Automatic annotation (TrEMBL):
This is Lysine--tRNA ligase. Residues 172-471 form the Aminoacyl-transfer RNA synthetases class-II family profile domain. The gene is lysS. InterPro entries: Aa-tRNA-synt_II (IPR004364), aa-tRNA-synth_II (IPR006195), aa-tRNA-synth_II/BPL/LPL (IPR045864), Lys-tRNA-ligase_II (IPR002313), Lys-tRNA-ligase_II_N (IPR044136), Lys-tRNA-synth_II_C (IPR018149), NA-bd_OB-fold (IPR012340), NA-bd_OB_tRNA (IPR004365). GO terms for molecular function: ATP binding; lysine-tRNA ligase activity; magnesium ion binding; tRNA binding. It comes from Candidatus Acidifodinimicrobium mancum.
Length: 480
């Protein structure tokens, strides 16, 4: 069967392509040296006006006035008007000008000026074609009515929608900020396997694959936790991993099956160290993209100078009143019939009645032991563990423990997870013998924290959907 593609180039653009080639010009150029980005010129306009610059970008607008022509040129993070007087172009540049179309990528050199209408512009003296576009760009309303189309044709979304492009650039700044904060605090970035033979370290359904060379099934990583803890056993003291995790579960405005996760562990630390580190990470990331700590999210103003700390039982008591065990279990069974214990009931009621109301940055502490198999018991009340989850706008941003380092207790916790699984509770931890064996050699007291970085980017960039901060989110089949 012959190879076929269903792509039909625009006839006029194809004609221009062939004419450029007949001039002996390669319409798909090689390296092009720029003196400035467009945003640099706009930002430093008063210092640069009157000077010659060389820039490159895509033509996204064009207006012809006889021998004068105006183009809108866009690069990664800026847009600027080109002022073109045909009389000031040399022969080759003039030939190229007549063969340009909207969508083409060009390089230009010229003087930075203000036009008579006070528009910041470049008066072009030289033009080079760098990449000839053969398909017409959509209208500037692309994706307004059909948001799904924007995600399917993300390359077009980024061309046509400056805001979409900015969300991704700012998300990158968020991740850079997180790394800078961790590196400044002397944590080491050590990668862990993405292919793992036990789907451990998190309560989630994994993606499964087969490793042909090893004749063995593996799982895509759902968490980095157990491998990073084994590093602590091996003598490393401050470690982190920022990489993709995969959870074969639902997709909504806050969940994507493939996501960027930070996990960080500090030997000889505890939950209080993780609270301080999490505050610093989040505060710095918000500031990195906004230049301030008070930011808008939808209709709310969020203040990242202030973080509240509330124990879970107090938060639930405020909503339901009495914390009587029988009453709590009865209330929780109305939400989830598998609930049989006080801890499961408390957690279920928290998720149902409290979480969505946590708008400002809030640490919820004192989690039940039933839902925290890898966290250390509280000394004054062993029904609970040293754990927090941090919430903003009802979204869970971070999850942290004083880590369980007692190997015998950890074995009992995994046994309890098996019992919970048999009762029909879906969110349980898989037993990892290699990890448990490592604990028997001794792991130092440890504080650990995990954070979904796309969720942090959502908050920092005022994005209502996690898909806005993911360059290529997973989608259903178009006709599925």
């Amino acid at each position: 069967m012959a190879f076929e593609i269903d792509i039909e180039p625009d006839e006029n653009k194809l004609k221009h392509l062939n004419e450029i080639r007949r001039l002996g010009i390669d319409p798909y150029g090689h390296k092009f040296d720029r003196t400035n980005s467009i945003s640099e010129i706009i930002r430093n306009f008063d210092e640069i006006i009157g000077k010659n610059v060389t820039v490159a970008g895509r033509i996204i607008g064009r207006r012809n006035h006889g021998k004068l022509e105006f183009m809108d040129l866009a690069d990664q993070d800026g847009q600027m008007q080109l002022f073109i007087n045909e009389a000031e172009l040399n022969g080759q540049s003039l030939d190229i000008l007549h063969l340009l179309d909207i969508g083409d990528i060009i390089g230009v050199s010229g003087e930075v000026i203000r036009t008579k209408t006070n528009e910041k512009s470049i008066s072009v003296k030289k033009i080079e074609i760098l990449s000839k576009s053969l398909l017409n760009l959509p209208s500037r309303w692309f994706g307004i009515e059909d948001v799904e189309k924007r995600y399917r044709k993300r390359h077009l979304d980024f061309i046509m929608n400056y805001e979409s492009r900015q969300k991704i650039l700012m998300s990158s700044e968020v991740i850079n900020s997180v790394r800078e904060t961790l590196n400044k605090n002397k944590f080491m970035d050590i990668p862990v396997p993405l292919l793992q033979y036990v789907a451990g370290g998190g309560n989630a359904t994994p993606f499964k694959t087969h490793f042909n060379a090893l004749h063995r099934d593996f799982y895509l990583k759902i968490a980095s936790e157990l491998h990073l803890k084994r590093l602590l056993v091996g003598g490393f003291e401050r470690v982190y991993d920022i990489s993709k995790s995969f959870r074969n579960e639902g997709v909504d405005t806050r969940h994507n099956p493939e996501f960027i996760e930070l996990e960080v562990y500090q030997a000889y630390g505890d939950l209080n160290d993780m609270i301080a580190l999490t505050e610093e990470i989040v505060r710095n990331a918000v500031y990195a993209v906004n230049g301030k700590h008070k930011v808008k999210f939808d209709k709310d103003e969020l203040d990242f100078e202030k973080f509240s700390i509330i124990p879970m039982d107090e938060a639930v008591k405020k909503e339901v009143g009495d914390l009587n065990e029988d009453k709590l279990i009865k209330l929780a069974k109305g939400i989830d019939k598998s609930v049989v214990s006080y801890g499961d009931a408390l957690n279920t009621l928290f998720e149902e009645k409290v979480q969505k109301k946590l708008i400002q940055p809030t640490f919820i502490t004192k989690y039940p032991i039933e839902v925290s198999p890898l966290a250390k018991k509280m000394e004054d009340d062993p029904r609970f563990v040293y754990r927090f989850e941090m919430f903003v706008e009802g979204i869970e941003l971070a999850n942290a423990f004083t880590e369980l380092n007692d190997p015998l207790d950890q074995v009992e916790r995994f046994k309890n997870e098996e019992k919970r699984k048999k009762r029909g509770i879906k969110e349980t931890q898989e037993f990892d013998e290699e990890f448990v064996e490592s604990l028997f050699y001794g792991m130092p007291p440890t504080g650990g924290m995990g954070m979904g970085l796309e969720r942090l980017a959502m908050i920092a960039t005022n994005s209502k959907s996690i898909r806005e901060v993911i360059p290529f989110p997973q989608l259903r089949e178009e006709n599925g």
